[in-house]
Design brief:
By secondary structure, the protein is α+β, with helices and mostly antiparallel strands. The protein has one domain. About 35% of the residues lie in helices and about 25% in strands. The protein contains four helices and six strands. The strands form two sheets. The chain has a four-stranded antiparallel sheet. The C terminus is likely disordered.
């Protein structure tokens, strides 16, 4: 959390919404098959602010796209604003019509310009897709940002 942010600026948990189609048996089976072959996302980018490595959005997509596709699962990601909060929406859609969806609420810095919003969107897309598809990634930037650094895995 940025030193300029206060707890009031952090979205409350009620902004995070998980949703699904009325049945999920087929997408659950397909997702379990895809996850059996999804590997972790390698750390290919550097966060200069925290001097840490992380898996960028492209690497996260590449880590899961082929396996999801083999199981007839597509993903979409979009965003919207709700009550002044920026939401990244990730949806997994199976060829059967079943789907799973999750929204991630992200704090908006005061005076955010288009570049800052794009950066927030990319961050949300990376973590949203990784969590829904089961892509493992080391959270270097998040841990260092919160003051918790695990040197064991470096």
């Amino acid at each position: 959390m940025d030193n300029n942010q206060t707890e009031k600026q952090i979205p409350k948990i009620e902004y995070i919404v998980e949703d699904q189609s009325p049945t999920i048996g087929k997408i659950a089976l397909a997702l379990s098959k895809a996850q059996a072959n999804i590997s972790g996302a390698s750390k290919n980018a550097v966060n200069p602010f925290f001097k840490s490595n992380y898996a960028d959005l492209n690497i996260v997509i590449e880590a899961c796209r082929t396996q999801l596709s083999k199981q007839e699962i597509a993903f979409t990601q979009g965003n919207r604003f709700k009550d002044g909060v920026f939401l990244v929406v990730t949806k997994l859609i199976h060829s059967s019509g079943e789907w799973l969806s999750s929204e991630m609420a992200l704090p908006m810095p005061k005076g955010a310009n288009a570049q800052a919003i794009g950066s927030i969107n990319t961050y949300g897309r990376r973590y949203g897709l990784a969590s829904m598809a089961g892509v493992a990634q080391k959270d270097d930037d998040g841990n260092e940002g919160s003051g918790k650094v695990n040197k064991v895995n470096e």
